[in-house]
């Protein structure tokens, strides 16, 4: 029976992952660090009622070492999804911090969310993602250097990212991004990523140094901006227009959008 740590449980992927882990018969206990425990109260109550032990410690898993170490002691597996709001520099800092905590706590293997195409080891590589991609590569290399077993889950673009445009879509009937009218990007659902993560967390065959698992959506999920506006228009029964915006000047986001404009 496995004891699993889950960091990032209230995020887009984490919220999909928790119920899957609750239903895994091979998982004995789930341990969580979150600054928003009220978001998972219903799931925790459901799990407890069904004899699944869940320990929730309130705190920031990105910086609170005492809480992180206390939570990880006795865990054999750890899932990590860092907040999307972090800068590339923060990804490196927080990623290394959590790697060191996992090693100190004798966690056997970590499963972390990365990004498809950040280097030549992914199934598809069209060029650098810029600082964000380089940050994930740096964390993966650091895990290998300190001897921490890890599996890097590398999904394509998340369907949930459309949430950043919901207000504009509903109020202005437009979808504005720097993607451009030519590039097409593969999209994958957070549910599907969570399903992969749940399997990797309980399968010992994945316990290797630097194992990479690319996660893509089916071919029909490869969409351009015009495809997306057409689908959204059909769903909302009103016309949504695409507006191409400039690539942002901030290096972190400029690198990512230039990568996507190349079809990454």
Overview of the molecule:
The protein is of the alpha/beta class and 264 residues long. Helices cover 39% and strands 22% of the residues. The chain is built from nine helices and twelve strands. The strands form three sheets. A seven-stranded parallel sheet has the order 3-2-1-4-5-6-10, sandwiched between helices. The longest helix has 17 residues, at 88-104. The mean pLDDT is 90.
Q: Tell me the distance between the termini.
A: 39 Å
Order of helices and strands: EHEHEHEHEHEEHEEHEEHEH
Strand order of the largest sheet: 3-2-1-4-5-6-10
Low-confidence stretches: none
How many helices? The count is 9
DSSP helix fraction: 25-40%
What does the largest sheet look like?
Answer: 7 strands, parallel
Number of DSSP E strands: 12
Structural class: alpha/beta
* Rounded Rg: 19 Å
Mean pLDDT across every amino acid position? 90
- Proportion of β residues? 15-25%
Overall, the morphology is: globular
List the helices and strands and how they pair.
Elements: E1 2-7, H1 12-22, E2 27-34, H2 41-49, E3 53-58, H3 65-72, E4 77-80, H4 88-104, E5 109-113, H5 131-146, E6 150-155, E7 157-158, H6 166-172, E8 174-177, E9 184-188, H7 190-202, E10 211-215, E11 222-224, H8 225-236, E12 241-244, H9 251-261
Parallel strand pairs: 1-2, 1-4, 2-3, 4-5, 5-6, 6-10, 7-9, 8-12
Antiparallel strand pairs: 9-11
Helix pairs in contact: 1-7, 3-4, 4-5
């Amino acid at each position: 029976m496995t004891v699993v740590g889950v960091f990032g449980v209230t995020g887009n992927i984490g919220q999909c992952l928790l119920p899957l882990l609750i239903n895994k018969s091979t998982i004995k206990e789930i341990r969580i660090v979150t600054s928003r425990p009220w978001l998972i109260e219903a799931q925790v109550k459901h799990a407890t009622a069904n004899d699944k032990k869940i320990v929730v410690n309130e705190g920031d898993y990105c910086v609170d070492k005492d809480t992180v170490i206390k939570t990880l002691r006795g865990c054999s597996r750890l899932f990590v999804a860092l907040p999307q709001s972090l800068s590339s520099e923060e990804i490196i800092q927080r990623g290394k911090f959590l790697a060191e905590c996992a090693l100190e706590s004798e966690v056997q293997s970590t499963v972390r969310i990365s990004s498809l195409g950040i280097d030549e080891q992914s199934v598809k590589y069209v060029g650098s993602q810029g600082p964000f991609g380089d940050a994930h590569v740096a964390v993966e290399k650091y895990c290998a250097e300190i001897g921490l077993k890890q599996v890097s889950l590398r999904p394509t673009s998340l369907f949930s990212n459309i949430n950043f445009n919901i207000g504009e879509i509903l109020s202005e009937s437009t979808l504005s991004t720097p993607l451009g009218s030519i590039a097409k990007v593969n999209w994958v659902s957070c549910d599907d990523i969570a399903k992969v993560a749940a399997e990797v967390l309980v399968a010992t065959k994945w316990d290797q140094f630097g194992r990479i698992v690319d996660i893509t959506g089916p071919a029909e999920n490869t969409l351009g901006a015009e495809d997306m506006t057409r689908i959204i228009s059909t769903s909302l029964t009103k016309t949504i227009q695409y507006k191409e915006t400039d690539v942002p000047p901030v290096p972190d986001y400029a690198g990512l959008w230039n990568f996507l404009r190349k079809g990454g």
